[in-house]
Amino acid sequence: MHDPSLQAVRRAAAFESTVLENGLTVRVHTMPGFTGVHAVYGTKFGSIDRAFALDGKRVDLPAGIAHFLEHKMFENEEGDAFTLYARTGASANAYTSFDKTCYIFTASGNVAENLDILLSPGRILRRQPWKRNRASSGRRSSSMTTRRTGG
Q1: For residue 93, which of 63, 122, 116, 118 has the smallest C-alpha distance?
Q2: How far apart are CA 38 and CA 106, in angstroms?
Q3: Model confidence over 16-58: pLDDT tens digits?
Q4: What SS3 class is residue 130?
């Protein structure tokens, strides 16, 4: 049975996808005629990710660590990512679920500058007084989705 409304939903949900050399999956959903941009950077680290192996040893993390890191990710002596986004006219948000943590911005201009803020957390993390360790929970994967919206 041909359902025109189902076909319309499938067209509206379609996106282009590519995997960059660094493993980042980028998905782009273009909506002709719209001027706003929504971008989401998501990583597969959520509330269930509390144990992993590092150099062959088990590491256990406290409950709430993913949500804590969501808040700490963009803090530095200059302020936080929300301040940086506000300077460009964008709005931002973040959330942690059971299996992922996502950072989001919405903008109608300065898209490249906002993408730089979104994709440059290492620049900010290097300013932190604590040391970062590379670890793998076996679910290490990230993705970014952008969508043009608004009118």
Answers
A1: 118
A2: 4
A3: 888 888 787 888 888 888 888 988 888 889 999 999 899 999 9
A4: coil
pLDDT in tens, 77-119: 666 788 889 999 999 999 999 999 998 999 999 988 988 888 8
How far is residue 114's CA from residue 85's CA, in Å, rounded to a whole number?
7
> Are 120 and 24 within 8 A, CB to CB?
no
Per-residue DSSP letters for 68-115? HHHHHTT-BTTB-HHHHHHHHT-EEEEEE-SS-EEEEEEESS-HHHHH
What element of type H or E holds 25? Answer: strand 25-29
Please pick, among 70, 75, 77, 113, the residue that the annotation labels catalytic.
70
Which pTM does this prediction carry? 0.68
Known catalytic membership, residue 75 = no
Cβ partners under 8 Å of residue 68, min gap 6? none
Nearest to 135 by CA among 69, 80, 75: 69
